[in-house]
């Protein structure tokens, strides 16, 4: 099985290394015609605006939408999740082209800026059931999105507790004052729908290969061939391209 990894920008090197560790051939995808030679596709994390501009420059969006419609497995991580979503929010006016196909609403940069990146232990019972191993997975969130809503055909594989600030009006004896209190809510960070898999975090940055293994076992389902791909106009406020890390790094144990 040859797995394509969209190699325009972002963590494609880390996905290539993760595939090598489990003995799978990875193919870097930069041109539309290269998609004809792969059986599955990974859209990595990175800077989504830059990736969208490069994909548009290379006229990749029509080919990527066609690939999704074939029913072949497609996995989006972080920015890749945004690309696969039918709708995305958290942007200012302008727009960013999406591939679509995944029936969900994504909020880009839900967890904050680069400085607010974090790691946390996620509960992944469905992953453990299908791939073995523990019920926990170390999620690496880097300027990460989150899924706010999912359609009826979308299976939730993991969610994440998020501390959100809410305001509560307090009325003391002498004057009115506002107090900020912390509440705990959960947002969805991993889903599966037909031939599509999406994670808001970066499994390729860990030594746990179960997400890659799960993805490779996703079979082509002819019933999903008519998935609707919607290009929803969204934008973001960033246009930063960082250096790619070494080919096999970083790997968090």
UniProtKB/TrEMBL annotation:
Annotated L-glutamine binding sites: 46-48, 108, 142-143
Single GO BP term: pyridoxal phosphate biosynthetic process
Broadest EC class assigned to this enzyme: hydrolase
GO MF: glutaminase activity; lyase activity
Cellular compartments per GO CC: cytosol; glutaminase complex
Annotated Pfam families: SNO (PF01174)
UniProt-listed Enzyme Commission number(s): 3.5.1.2
Entry keyword Zinc: no
Reactions catalysed: L-glutamine + H2O = L-glutamate + NH4(+)
Active site per database record: 78 (nucleophile), 202 (charge relay system), 204 (charge relay system)
Transmembrane segments annotated in the record for this chain: none
Keywords: Glutamine amidotransferase, Hydrolase, Lyase
Family: Belongs to the glutaminase PdxT/SNO family.
HAMAP family to which the protein is assigned, alphabetical: PdxT
Protein name: glutaminase
Organism: Canna indica (Indian-shot)
């Amino acid at each position: 099985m040859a797995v394509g990894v969209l190699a325009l920008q972002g963590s494609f090197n880390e996905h290539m290394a993760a595939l090598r560790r489990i003995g799978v051939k990875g193919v870097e995808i930069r041109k539309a015609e290269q998609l004809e030679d792969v059986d599955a596709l990974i859209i990595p994390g990175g800077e989504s605006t830059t990736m969208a501009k490069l994909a548009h420059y290379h006229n990749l969006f029509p080919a990527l939408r066609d690939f999704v419609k074939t029913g072949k497995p497609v996995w989006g991580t972080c920015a890749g999740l945004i690309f696969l979503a039918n709708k995305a929010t958290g942007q200012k006016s302008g727009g960013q082209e999406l591939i679509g196909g995944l029936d969900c609403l994504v909020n880009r940069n839900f967890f904050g800026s680069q400085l607010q990146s974090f790691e946390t232990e996620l509960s992944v019972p469905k992953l453990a059931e299908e791939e073995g191993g523990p019920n926990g997975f170390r999620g690496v969130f880097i300027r990460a999105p989150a899924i706010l809503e999912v359609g009826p055909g979308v299976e939730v594989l993991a969610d994440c507790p998020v501390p959100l600030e809410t305001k509560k009006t307090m009325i003391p004896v002498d004057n009115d004052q506002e107090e900020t209190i912390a509440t705990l809510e959960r947002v969805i960070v991993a889903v599966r729908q037909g031939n599509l898999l999406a994670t808001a975090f970066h499994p390729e940055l860990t030594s746990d290969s179960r997400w890659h293994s799960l993805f490779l076992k996703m079979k082509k389902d002819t019933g999903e061939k008519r998935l609707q791909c919607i290009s929803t106009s969204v934008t973001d406020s960033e246009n930063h391209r960082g250096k790619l890390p070494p080919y096999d790094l970083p790997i968090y144990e």
